Records
---
Amino acid sequence: MTSRSTDSSASRRAGKERLTDDDVYDFALRVSYLSYLVTAKAQETTAANDDTKEKDRDRDLPHHSRISGAISNSFNSLGDLFKDPTREGQKSVKFPDKLFKVLDLRMQNIAMGKDAQFNDQYLRRVIAVFWGSLKATEKQSPRDAPSPWRQIKENRKIEELILFFVTTASQTLRKDPTLTGDDWKMELNSQIAHFVLILRECLRNVTHVPPEITSRLELYTVKLTENTAAVSSPKPSLQRNGGSEATIRMSRVGGNIEDMALVVTVGKLFKRSTQELQHDVDALKRFCSEDAAVVDLKTCLKNINSDMPFPGRRDDFESMEAYTLWRTQELAHLSQLILFMLQYNPNLAKSAPSDGTQQPMLQRPNSIRVDPDPDLSSQNGLILGNAAIDDDDIEAGNNFTYIPPNPKKFYKRLLELCVQDDLEAMINLPEDQEVSLGILSSKHLSLINECALRWRVTHSYRVTCFLDVVRYKYERDEVPIECLPEGLHLVEKAMQDLDIHKWPRVDVDYLSTIYGGLFNIFLGTLYEAFEDISKLTMAHIAPYIDILKTVRDSRLIDRYTADIEARLKDLADRVRIQAVHLYTDKNYELTMQSAGQIALPLLLLTDHLEKQARLLDKRFSEPILGQLDLVSLTLESQMPLFLTDLENARIDLLDASRGKTPSVPILDMFALFRRTRTLLSMHEAFCPSSPLHFDIAGFFEPYVLQWLLTTDMQTAQWVHTAITIDKFEPEGPEGHSSSIIDLFENLKSPVDFLLDLKWPDDHQEARFFTSLSKTAAKLIEEYSRRVEDLFMEEMFPRVVQEVQPVKQFGFIEKAKLTIAGEKKVEPFNFTSSSCVKLNNVDAARGLLDQMYAKIDVDRVTQVLATGTPPPPEKQDRQRFLFTVKVVQAEGLTSQDTSTAGKLDTFVTLSDEKGTRLAKTRTVYETVNPRWDETFDVSVQSPLWLMSSVRDRVLIGKHDTIGRGYLCLDPKRFGDYLTHDLWLDLDPGGRILLRVSMEGEKDDAQFYFGRAFRSLKRAEGDMIRVIIDKMGSTIRLYLSRSVLAALVKTSTIGYDYNKALAGMTGLYRNAIGADKADSVIPLPAKDKPNRRPEQLSDEQIEDAIAPLFDYFDANFQTLNSSLSTTTRQTVMNKVWKEVMATLEALLVPPMSDAPSDMSPLSEKEVDIVFKWLKFLKDYTYANGEGPVPLEQLQNQRYRDLLSIRLYYDWHTDDLMEECVRLLQHTLKEEPTVKKRAKSVYSQRNLGTIKERKRVKKQETQQGNSEMILRILRMRPGTKEFIAQQFAVASSASTQQEGRSRTSRAQDASLIPPVPPVPNFNR
């Protein structure tokens, strides 16, 4: 190596030659040699002081006393020496976190005697106590008082760490018995010097140590050396006039490179042999000296004040604030380095700049202020720096000995070489040897830190350069990606310590360029990673993402926004392309696997797409870099392709799903709908800015309609199956059987199915539920009809002969039955099976109401009413629902004289073609029958009905008593009112039909109303049969014949109290009462009269004793088998039948013609009302019966009691009272007639209960009808009765006219009644 003087360095700076490794080697060797010059002398001085200390121990006490003053002064100056520089206004500088780990290992090795360099017994003991005390305070609870260790870890100030060592060492050495007197103080200075040296060596193994920390430790080393020298011998006087007396105690530096650690490191780094290295070091000695180092530092100070480019000037910074901060810190740092050099070798203050030779500098009096006293503080460095700038012999410029022409460029190359050398060494390590966590080794760290210190390389550039080198190595696959976070962390820490806006501009631009390069590199890496997104995981790209986020969050790449956006767009396009390829490949694979099938590949494809999207969402819950959402990009690319394939298969799917044996099951289509809907919802959630215009409701609507049609066709089978397997045995507390539960389970399944579909179109969903409601109504009507038929079979069992007669003698058997008296009344006993059927109807109402709420029928109807339906393909004519109630018939005549005027009649309703539409039950032995049965007839155009009254016979066809005709024309009943129509029968008599009409609508409320009405009518018909069965027995025992026999004869009375007590006990058992049965005594007023000519109560009771027996037998069955609601309804009807029977004994039925019925005598009337009282008490059973007293004493009961009031009135008084009550009734009636009860008023249990409540609140009018019935038995009242009927009819006609006017119905629009067609009879 040729010698390089400052002149030669200056000439190289002037040129722009290419940097070579030899150039880097030259200046690195210079800095390494300078480090040796400083470090070696300090160590030798310390060793010399140790020898002096050993000699001082052997001296006598007087000599020790002479140096005690010097020891005291040295010890007292430690507080000033390690004073926190921040208290003097300087910026707080923290040592790196990694120092704790390195220092911990070094302390353990020293305390255990494993460190050969520091094996002094005192030092090992002090280190053990010091480090043990620190570790002990580390384990204290956070709630305890703040510990020194916690404070040191938080502040990370080097002075606090040294002072804590001083405190621990003082306490330990003072207790040592081998150190007497002030010997421990001398040992303390030595231990502190050793500790500072340990800190310096530990910091060399830590990356990027702030230069201020290194400078302070160097200064502390010099101060401690002087303190040790002052203690070991009297303080020498410093001669300023030349000479070497000031350094007489310093050992001379040797020239062997084996003692030069950094020099050896440089030699190995640049592959120099020992001879070459020794030769180059010897050549450096001519111009590399401490004097030259001081001159370089002074030149830097001069350049700063002269605003020279190096080491920095105002133009290098963005703001004046940033420049001022850098200038202040740089001047202080340079001053500290100069102070360190001068205090280390005071003779340097006398030397002057040379021309490159190692000549002593010319003395300039008062040019430098030097104070060699041991108590010189760090503040003197600033004073020294300011004084040093005044050295006129130092010129500003680029003439340096140790600083290369382009320090940053040299530093970068040196760093590259160090990193490369460490990487090669790491590759050649044995497999079982532990690898360092850092990239740089400790020796190379020491080298680059020393070079950065001497070359004045800023900390911001150092961390940026390190990141750049690591990036460069990573690009060439020389280092793993795990090395990059270390460099990024150093940059982030540097930006935290000093705001990046206060960095030099060139460093900021340099870092921005590196960040931009890193961003491009890892965007490219992501591009390659997106080759197969199905196998991509976050763990695979997490390191790239972390680096990209760190770079992006720094905001240093904002200048490359356009380029970054373009690269991110390329990444998004990459994902889209890969998603398309994945979809195409998967679709082809599934199509090949499912050859010949249409729906299966689509089903499997939707399953694949959903799982893929969910997997990507799980792996990448957040968009990459906040912009690349893999789920969104994938769905955005794949969903349009899938929907296109689905649309292309529309016709094939429809064709394959129809027919008796469809190749595509309808359930597969619904599964396809659910998965498609899920994919569409996922697309909507992840891709809100890319909406898809696909009508999923319209695509799958045909399949729902087909499924609804199939469901509707299954209703008959459901009803048949449920009834077939039902044994009609009570199951549950309400006494219903299994069929109704099975039926509603079948009906519940499609309801749940539709709800689970979560159909996206509310209007279509409402139409679906409307169709299903229609199916439910159809199901309920069919079930009601079948159960009612079974019930009727039990009520009217067919007579089965044990031996079937021969066919030709069948008429003889019928004749025998007729002769034997077929119409003989026999009490009918009910069975629990019949009660269960009635309970099923009641249970169906509750279950149907639950379904009403589950479907939310009101909302469904509202949606249909407010939504915009699609235009119908064909406008169908509206249908109307007529409600025809067969009320009663009058004046029927029999064509058979053998029947003695008694008829067993029923009514049939037939259309024009002779098709039977309805049939009533049979009412026996009366010419004025009352059926009160209601039927529904749906019409689209005017329809003629033929009402046929027939007499039931055992042999041959039933006789026709008469026929009447009615035209059901929607235009004639457009007022929607109830019309009472009397039809004249041919050949005689008449029949009352009550007709009302309402529009038949296609909505859910209407269908549920029909279903509830079907159940109510079935229940009413069944209860009516029960009442008819019981009514025949009631009429048998509550008859005029029994009454006449009772008046004529006198018998032992029936034990009324016994019967009443039996009834009470019966109902107590039903309701679970545990109190004993009680006998209800007769009131005093009801006790039998003592007069023998009068009938006693016992005799009156005894006359109806069989009726009580009949009630006892059947009420027990009804009470134990019927549900609570049904039982109460039946008992109410029984009570009404009892009152009607008693009423029929007193007065004839209502009619406008006189009656041939004779009134009862007063005695007979008394008996009738006593029967009423006995039966009421029997039914009430002291409050334990099924009917409350309020219902027993209803309006009809009060009307019946009123008969007794009017029964003996004079005819004229009755007429006058009748007129008054009728006028009052007409005044109280509303002016407008109410509309008929519609289906909508019965659509659920809530509306049914509301209607009953309103009906119950209606005021009851006067009993003019009862007076008219009494007048029918009076002579000469025919005209009056006819007149009253005419007045009532006229009032009704006027009311109906007002109703039509209020509805703006033009009477001219009502068509005339068409002629009666020729019925097929």
---
Amino acid sequence: MDPSSDEAGKHRATLDHSLPASALAASSQSKKPSASGSKARICLPSHANQAGLITDSWTDQQLIYHPTTTSTPLSYGITLTNEIHDVDFFPGRVDSASTITSPSTVTTGTVFPESPPSSYSISSSPSSNSVSQSSSIELNSIIPASDERLRAGFTAGVDLKGAGQLLEQSHTAGSFSSSSETAYPYTHPVADSVLQTALPLLQSVQNLPSVPLFRGTAPNPLASSLARDALLTYAHRMFNSPFQPAPLATMPPPSSIVVDPRSREHPYSTQLLPLLQNLKALHPRHLPTLLLMGCVYYAIGYHEASLAQNEEILSMDGTYVEAMSNLGTTLKAMGRSDEAILWWWKAVLLRPTYWDAINNLLGSLIVLEQERVPSGSIAVYADALRLCEFVRTKLVDGSGKLLVVIPPSEFHQLLNIIYVGGNIRGLSDEKFESGGLQDFVTAIELLLHLERPGETIYFNFKHLLLALCVGGLIITSSLPEPVARLASSKGYPDFSTSSPVRRFDILGFVRIADESLLQVLLAEGGGVFPSIFMNPEQATQLTSIIFASSLGVFPSLCSWSESNGRLEQPSSKTMNESNKIASDIFLSIAKKLQEMESFTIPLPRFGSEMCAGPSLVLLLYYLAFSLSPSPSSCNNLGITLSTTPWGDVPTGSANQLEGLEFLELAKAFYKRGLELDASHPHLLTNMGSMLKETNFLDAAIEMYARAVQINPDFDVALANLANAIKDSGRLPESIPFYRRAVEINDNLPEALCGMVHAVWSVCDWRGLGYIDSNITLDSVGDVRLDTSGDFLRSGWMSKLIHTTQKQVASAYRLNVGVVRTTGRLEDWVAWIEESIGSELPLAQKGRWTRLFQQFFTDLDRDEKCINEGGFVIRVVEWLMRVLQWRWYTEAFGQVFYFQEKLDPLFLEISDEAKTKYRRPRLPPSMVLQAAPSVLPFHTFIYPLSARGIRLVAHRNALRISHSTLTRSWIPEHVYPPPPPPYHRINVAYVSSDFGDHPTSHLFQSVFGMHDRSRFCIFVYALSGSDESSHRKKIENESEVFRDVSSWTTQRIVEGLIKDGIHVLVNLNGYTKGARNDIFAARPCPVQISFLGFAGTLAAGWCDYLICDPIACPPSTRVCDVCETQFPHSQGHHASGLSNFETINFDLGADPESSGEWKYVERLIYMPHSYLVTDHKQSYGGRQDGLAAGRRWEQAEAKRRRLRRLVFSDLFEDTIIFANFNQSIYATWLRILKRVPNSILWLLRFPPAGEEHLLRTASHWAGPDIMARVRFSDVVRKDDHIERAAIADIFLDTAECNAHTVAADVLWGGTPIITWPKYSFKMCSRVGASIAYATGFGSQMVTETLKAYEDRAVSLALSTTSSSFRRSGGDTMQGRGELANLRRDLFMNREKMPLFDTLRWTRNLEKGLEEVWKRWVQGGTSAHFNVSDARNHYEHCNGFIWIHDEDP
């Protein structure tokens, strides 16, 4: 059939949410998301713009780190801080699906090396006579011996220019110090009094800046140190606030404010510099005065004077690190970066806690590395890492304890340096757990020691994570009883009372309970930390509860007051600065854990490997938010909550959520983030993806549009906007947004796949590249033949195929080790035997052992195509099927029918049954499978291999399975099977297309034609009524019709259980509106795919596919075990089996294998054609009573009238070739050329395609042929059926055949020419299946493209006419092969199998009975031989061959 549109799919909307894009640098420029990702990817999500985060997925790497104020109050620097907004997704989901979705952090920090605002651009020519101070400092620790140039510059002070382009940005040039260690406070009581006297003296020489204040021998009232310090205090005030040096200034204000400090009218030049010059004259060796004067010279652009001033300071004191740092800053501004780096290094070596020099040096080393690294390469930042390690080793010992005293106000500086080092280390191939994670943990643990009189209490990272979990449980009122009991046993009874939360010393408790508490929590979470769900208000309380014993802040920031004997909080500034860095660190850890291929890692302080799991990731994000709420933490929380398939939550918890509740929680964090920054493009994009997920399409488009307006180069927002516009029915309008997204980032899979499908849909084939064999389409749309192999690498289609292959391969690196960590080899085999209820025969046990053995070795997963997570899902789904079958056979025996009605099992499930048939669970450490960006439905038209198509479907199936089987409403036991049929098998059809849709056009009469003495038919409609005649017919003729469009998945599944459904039929597959999670829950014994999706679902929740041997040749299915033991006689009723133990239980062929086979399902082969039609009921019987010949004459007369109406300018004998889709267009144009008296009739579907098709026809075949390509509008179904008969010959498409349309034209007597191009594409073989079901297939089916063309031409040229008229008259007799074939098709349509719906229904019922019998005999997890087989393939029970006894 012809599904009307592709499936957006929940995981695609997730990709919209979580399109992954890791960021490095933040600026006004857009950064590129990397492929991962999803759902949005949407992303799984990514961590952008954290301080210092660098990822190897970007070629244009930049580094951000936090600038911090100096340790002294008077450290001046023209430092620009920016709120960074470069946050990424995956997708989608990329849109999960797509729709597209991404997490990140937003950092206030110095950004390298983006251009600054113009007001901060400072530049000057390098000083030719300035020479750096030489030094005897040991060089080996900072400069590699091989770098002679830098070593020479360091020792000789030579001019080292040209290391990098001048960055005209004051904060890039470095933070400029204007104070010595002795700080000058902004207020000073004595100094203020002195200033009252000194300022009038200064006023008297206001206009004489170059004249000293006092001459001769008169006593100088300003020569005292007290007056000097008072005036210097005033100077510092003026430097900070040049237009408001109040409260003591009595000078007249300037007549106008001059903002540019380089202007001669600026107060720096008119007031501040004269003051400092006079002070210097009075106190020529006062270094703080000289330091501030150097700052002023720098600020007004006199770099040479600034340089000389700092060199003068160093000539007096060679260890004055502030002057060294400022000297470096000045040299940097003068373009002498290498010399600047040397001076900063000198300052850092002398004082490893001089943060200004450290930050300046770190930024410059990063920029220098970026300038050195070629485009497209990965920067390693070795020098920057060396600096971070030097500072850390000087200040922190190997156990993580401080070697020097660092005031709490400076903690954030040290944390930042360690944090940046960890991020840089993460760029290497070193594993996160042994590299960056260790640095992050070291930084956090520096905040976790509590000073008390006479003792220091040290907490570690493990204690913090345990406290975080306990704190979350307390906040959400879901503290498990075992935790409360443990707390009470450890002397903390408050945990089980309603005491105020501030009384809970959680850190003290977890420090004592430690491993005992960990085991209790893991038991509650099923092997991971329990999942805890908080809203923003609850999450805000986390830090106050966790750190209740240290006044709600990190313990290290508190100080013990000797005066009152109590703990005191730090200043809010100190607390906020450390909290910000710590928040970024936790965001980094959480995101790194999300991006890892397995959650099972050796977490520091935990002693051994443990499963971090998504629940811990969520807790870390909560803690980051609680420490420092930011748009990015809100963004990450929103994505994590809305895209993770959350499963179990703490038992008995009031914290259980489901479905839309997660989305509402995510929405709350998105809203909170937008309150913090209403123009945050990534929050807007993710909010849009969530709105799209919940069917608020217009609102989603508005959000995406706002994001694009704010950041026009944001590729993820552009791709999501394009997807949403396409889904709203405006396909042509989406294309410019797709193109723009791909122009910005051609490695964004969702944008690439969306664009390729969109341009293909409107027939704009320019630049597609590889389309078939060695045929390519170039940028202007010309067809090129390429035998060199380059066609495989050219064009958008080649890029799409390559991207899909990369995405498929990425799964082989996910979940590595999950089998080994879940159980031993013998444990897995024992679980298999436990599930089947008996010991495996020796041969079968050996096969299972070998199957599991591969996961206990170090095999290369990529090379062997081993998807370990996918394997675990397949095993769990297989065990579920086995357990459900066992439950049936042990409750009812192996009987097909029962003579009396039995009570269903679900009414009363004993504890014994719950234990015996306990559902196997997915390991909580498993990472959600990522689905390729290409949708399964789109594989119908793309030139992918059989394996490629199979894996696109399989990865979607795995994702659906994982998401469904971890839902909290899934019971602990498998769903109970229905009782044996009481005379009738219960069959349920599930679809979203019961209405005016091709599925209903074809299938609507089958529901009423079923034999109700043998079948009870249920219909589950996933969509509401469209009030069409098709919907009403189905509602009226179905025995039980249920509109479940508003039901949750849980309610639908439980409804199927209550209805006792034996066979469940999926009429959607991977098409729009599908709810495949219903099937993934496995509510019914037998589950079948049919009609909606012409291909494999490759899913463990689909047992059979209804097809025919032409559409799905037997060779396209692989069966590993066909020699199994017991015989089964197809078609005969049996009462049961006596040799149950001989059943061969086998997992079946692995969809991940390298073979080019296609079908995972067992195949039900219908006779004639699998495609059902309803034309005989809907459009037949209108000429009853007329002789056959007369009916044909009337039909031809009507056809001629319609022909003249639609194409009034054509001759009567003009051949009309028709197609109502577009494909193999070049072949059609050649046919037109070979049949001069012919036209090609196409539909405007979509209307935008007409322009491209006409342009292509002119380009390929010339304007004359183009003029013979005609278009008409889409019409109602009834009108379409009548009008289709106008065509003389219907030319079928090759990649994906016509389904419903082919049946429509054949009903009108129009023959089709079709070519079953692929053996493995069901969608490309349906035309042949339909044609043969007419009885005239040999005249319409061809074997090659050339034969296709030749057959169309020969059939067209076979027509002759006994009369010829240009107009008028209703009759015209045609002769020849075409006329005869048309007449044969029309005259036999009432009796041919293709249009015999009742006959088709009876054959289907044979198949439904057979699948039920086979399930009773061995379930869908067993193999056996069929004894009465008629051919080789009939021996395998992987096929059911239905034979039609009718002639």
